Amino acid sequence: MKHLFFIFLLFNIALISKAIDTKETVVPYTLEDRDRLIRVESEQKALRNEMNSLRNEMNARFESIDKRFESIDQRFELMYDQIKDIKIFLYWGFGVLFTFMAALMGFVLWDRRTVLTPVQRKTEMVEKNNERIIEALQTLAKNDTELTDILRSVGIL
Predict the structure, then answer these.
(1) How many domains does the chain have?
(2) Whole-prediction pTM
(3) Cα separation of 5 and 14, whole Å?
(4) What confidence tier does 40 reach under pLDDT thresholds 50, 70, 90?
(5) pLDDT tens for each residue of 78-129
(6) What is the rounded distance in angstroms from the CA atom of residue 108 to the CA atom of residue 102?
(7) Banded model confidence at residue 18, pLDDT cuts 50, 70, 90
(8) CA 101 to each of CA 51, 87, 108: distance values in angstroms, whole numbers, following the listed order
(9) Measured between alpha carbons, how far is 83 from 88 in angstroms, rounded to an integer?
(10) Does residue 1 belong to any structural domain of this protein?
(11) In terms of residue numbers, what domain contains 139?
(12) How many Cα atoms are found within 13 Å in the side-chain-facing hemisphere of 130?
């Protein structure tokens, strides 16, 4: 059995060495293969040139897009400046408006005070006169019974 195993092993080694030898055999390089390789190289160069031209085209487009973005940025800056100017104008406008409103309120209060002072004086004079008249009527009512009844019905006495 050992002999049989040894023979089997030698046979496998021989087969493996034969397989290795067949892999190392040289395949002949023909003119057709050479022509095919030349065509592949030329197509590769054409593809490379086309890729380079496309890359250059893309770069040119990106540069034009960058220029557009720069012009849009400039427009935004101009709009920002205009909005800033409008905000400043509105601040000044509202400031002037509120100042005029405060001045108007001050004038109204001053005018009201100046108008009310004479009215208050007249009202005080009328009240004093009414008090004097009531005193006079009360004095007369002491002597006149009819006047006393009238003043009681009105609520003065």
Answers:
(1) 1
(2) 0.41
(3) 14
(4) very high
(5) 999 999 999 999 999 999 999 999 999 999 999 888 888 888 999 999 999 9
(6) 10
(7) low
(8) 73, 21, 10
(9) 9
(10) no
(11) 33-154
(12) 7
